[in-house]
Amino acid sequence: xKRIAVFASGSGTNLQTLLGWFPHKDPRAEITLVISNKQxxxxxxxxxQAGVEAVYIPWKKNxxxxxxxxxxxxxxxxxxxxxxxxGFMRISSDPFVEFWRGRIINIHPSLLPDFPxxxxxxxxxxxxxxxxxxxxxxxxxxxxGGDMILQKAVPVLEDDTADALAARIQPAEHEAYPQAVRLWxxxxxxxxxxxxxxxxxxxxxxxxxxxxxxxxxLDVAQRQHAVRVARLLKTWDKPELVFAGLHLSADPVxxxxxxxxxxxxxxxTLEPLQDRKNRWEARGRLLERAEALGLKEAFEAAxxxxxxxxxxxxx
Length: 315
Ligand code: GAR
Description:
alpha/beta, Rossmann fold, 15 helices, about 50% helix, about 15% strand, binds glycinamide ribonucleotide
């Protein structure tokens, strides 16, 4: 079971949602530890009520180093696997973020890259957009800038106030955050590998992959898709196609892997339920294609978790 630490500075409604999910609705993970830089944060109270260790670590003036040292020591001791920032209103240091690369995520109440930083709801109103929402993303050295995991949109109404918009975004956050954690637990969410990581995983040809992604202008989601496809092809015992996967080539087996990935990812992040149902029912055609390519079992295995998810879905 994976062990999650949640950092929160405020009321902790996102924490509450996560406490309801892990391990009760998804036993692959538990919330092991909650840390706050505010002694009176209601998030700490929520943790205690759920029987979860709740620790206040003061963030004194210029005290980031102290805070992070204490947090690191606690997390190491509790063998934390994933750090979830849920309304944590402090900026982490580069070494801290680097240490947790791929294992630290944040939620932000706007559709990033729009409106990072403070008062994103007011920023959205000032910009006159008709749609806003929330983004779950990996944390890196750029404020609200790490690779995206998923977003949920909500409408902005004409007479909206920042508070009204925040209240509309909140339920979207409560939907998005557990989904993002579950994608991470399934290995479907990760930061795009850098040159070093990609070379280690796929070999020296990865440098060319990065160049070609750049030349084609692939966005983060498309790059993550290419990596998931390449990994699928490995598990399908098609090592000779892994680079074709990374290049998202038109090879029929690569195309099948792409469809499998679209299906499982879309299924796990899509709302409303009817869209999921349609997506799931549409897999019949893909199964036929998989069978023709001798990959029926591999294809079904790729969708195994999605299928479990569907079985557990109640109408
Ligand atoms: C959430 O809306 C979260 O997106 C935001 O703080 C709120 C915390 O609410 N985080 C940020 O703005 C980070 N830049 P909660 O305490 O009820 O979960």
